[in-house]
Amino acid sequence: MALKVSDAAVKQVKELKQAQSLGDDVFLRMGVKGGGCSGMSYALEFDNELGPEDREFQIDGVRVVCDKKSYLYLNETMLDYVQQGLTGGFTFVNPNAKSSCGCGSSFSA
């Protein structure tokens, strides 16, 4: 059981870290928080502070961290990066979501 990151998302995370000159101590934090049109929103950010109950994963050279509560909702979730025309963005493929909003940034469990 773990978090998953697609090859396209790994590549994009590495490019973003390099473009922002972020060091090896910086990792990708995946999480959820209350809110959004479906009840819970996905959170994705760079961070460098581990909490005492964080779970850490190494995925193709990318450190991914998730807090304990968020992990309950994100276990087996795939972070993907989709390029459409001139724009692109991260998407979450969450098998635990009972429903999600049209924009894909929130869900209900």
Catalogue the unreliable spans. none
Main beta sheet: 6 strands, mixed
Our measurement of the CA-to-CA distance between the termini, rounded to an integer number of angstroms, reads: 18 Å
Q: How many domains comprise the coordinates?
A: 1
Give the helix/strand layout.
Layout lengths: L3 E2 L1 H13 L7 E8 L5 E8 L7 E5 L2 E5 L1 H7 L3 E7 L2 E7 L5 E2 L5 E3 L1
Parallel strand pairs: 1-6, 2-5
Antiparallel strand pairs: 2-3, 3-9, 4-5, 6-7, 8-9
Task: Kindly describe this structure.
This protein has one domain: Sandwich (Hypothetical Protein Aq_1857, Chain: A), CATH 2.60.300. Strands 4-5-2-3-9-8 form a six-stranded mixed beta sheet. It is of the alpha+beta class. The protein contains two helices and nine strands; from the N terminus they run βαββββαββββ.
